[in-house]
């Protein structure tokens, strides 16, 4: 078959592995296989299984609906999982020996976490329990046959909506357990303070460790969760930490003599390194075992002998699996962990460790969505799945090229990647798209991105970078934008443009720029500072920091960590850093795009800028993605395609080469 560019339809053919769970004896891996269904325009999840030698690869639980969250029982004889069908979610358990599944209970909305007790007799999870909120004022009595408008929504919490979830009902997460022998779930925590989905069983099975911010009205305060331990017999809750700063992800050692967890001392910086701590089982004598690493770590998991803790961290745009002993001696195990999403090329990935030290992980690359890989205790690796061999064989994809340049601001080394269009010939001149990540404290890397690949397939050289502020380069690099965002990240990005132009194959008249969220902030900042780009697409930006910090879904967070004071205390600073302050300079034709239901960067941000551009006579267009929250591309597959298609259509309309009747980028995706 002829090699061809990636097409829109390919987004419905590509698949990705997620949440690999290796059996305790290391003999099998259950994982979640994700695919995009063209009929329903939804991402589907199904649990599959594969032997450690690659044999017996099959869907484990055919049947109605979708399955996810596979969790092995401690003896490996059973697998607990969650099934969702017709908007009902059930907790089910499969017995491997006979292949029979049984339903334990129906799970309420907001369920998170699922963990076996060490003796395999119980399962625990967290779920949301509603509570009464403030009442509306009294109105006349109504009878059932009357048809009145909905009553007033009365709110007293600062934080009452959350992107991806919508308006938050009153109530808290609580912990539940169920006995495998039968019976109803038992609610362990039942108070206004609540629990949290981030929990683990104690080694003796008599308690659960959990992380939660149990302060009254915690939604109004700076985030500060603590670790707690609840005794299952008495219901007594003991708080184990108390420093200022979040403490999360409690993980007791297999013999119960130590407790590991994640957290940091909160210095009110834009970025903090999340460190891995180890202490006694009651949290006493905590010490960081990753203090020297200068990276944020995640997903800690003990080795069976309690001598090592495995974890993930991002380094120079790639997610690594590493392990540390209790003295902080760190060994790198595996590179190229990859998330299962097809949107933009953010870092990510997941793994698990068996009792005998074999690791299952999701590993991919810039040209391959993640497969399941197995690593032996000696470090040998075996790829267990090849989910996309058939599709990838047809598609022309060259690996992302890593580039570096010195920032024109201060000479700082900045990293980025280039995707070349199919048929790229450096002897010709090419149009270029600069695509900018959000966060801003996050990182891009050489992971598979259908979004950016579709841009390259349309004939553009696509450049994406990790300017200052990005994670995976350490505390100092990220905090170079502390209270200074947007700032000299602008220079780093323009340095990327000049670096690419210096290579001789970029047409300077055909430069385009786009970015979403934090990347939308920087795109708008760029066009306020330069008219070098032929067109821009500003996606879900912050345009006006004053309106944003008071109207986003995290009003308790942004003004505290991203500014030195509140907007009414220093309005000039808020205005100085707002892209709206520069809109009078803009000459670049600019597309504006936002999810209609975005609560992180509310649509009013996008619409303010759209109005200002319009009023100033700058060519503009507003694209609203109906019902979409902030994560446009990873919510419905068609939204990813819409986002890219609208951006490319705009760039083509303002491409000087096209207007002059010259060569247009090939519209490979139309
Ligand atoms: C309490 S964390 C701060 C908000 C969060 N930052 C994550 O790094 C976030 O949502 N950032 C927005 C921009 C901000 C509201 C101005 C953002 O850029 N979102 C990213 C998504 C993202 C979130 C977390 C990690 C990576 C990416 C985007 O939509 O691309």
Blueprint (SSEs and pairs):
Blueprint: E1 15-22, E2 28-37, E3 42-51, E4 58-59, E5 66-72, E6 78-85, E7 88-95, E8 100-107, E9 112-116, E10 122-130, E11 161-162, E12 166-167, E13 171-179, E14 186-187, E15 198-201, E16 207-212, E17 226-231, E18 237-239, E19 247-252, E20 259-263, E21 275-279, E22 287-288, E23 297-302, E24 308-315, E25 318-325, E26 330-337, E27 351-353, E28 359-365, E29 368-375, E30 381-383, H1 389-392, E31 401-406, E32 413-419, E33 430-436, H2 450-457, E34 461-466, H3 475-478, H4 489-501, E35 506-516, H5 518-529, E36 535-539, H6 545-551, H7 558-562, H8 571-576, E37 590-595, H9 603-615, E38 620-625, H10 637-653, H11 656-659
Helix pairs in contact: 2-10
Residues 346, 438-439, 441-442, 516-518, 542, 554, 557, 600-601, 630 line the site of the ligand CSCC[C@H](NC=O)C(=O)N[C@@H](CC(C)C)C(=O)N[C@@H](Cc1ccccc1)C(=O)O.
Describe the protein in words.
With 670 residues, the protein is an alpha+beta fold. Among the domains are: 192 residues, Neuraminidase, CATH 2.120.10.30; 225 residues, Alpha/Beta hydrolase fold, catalytic domain (Rossmann fold), CATH 3.40.50.1820. The protein is built from eleven helices and 38 strands. The strands form nine sheets. It has an eight-stranded mixed β-sheet, with helices on both faces. It has a four-stranded antiparallel β-sheet with strand order 1-2-3-4, with no helix packed on it. A four-stranded antiparallel β-sheet has the order 5-6-7-8, with no helix packed on it. A hairpin with a 6-residue loop joins strand 19 and strand 20. Helix 2 packs parallel to helix 10. The longest helix has 17 residues. It is globular. The two termini are 21 Å apart. The mean pLDDT is 96. The structure holds the ligand CSCC[C@H](NC=O)C(=O)N[C@@H](CC(C)C)C(=O)N[C@@H](Cc1ccccc1)C(=O)O. The site of ligand LTI5PX6W has 14 residues, from loops. The ligand CSCC[C@H](NC=O)C(=O)N[C@@H](CC(C)C)C(=O)N[C@@H](Cc1ccccc1)C(=O)O binds next to loops.
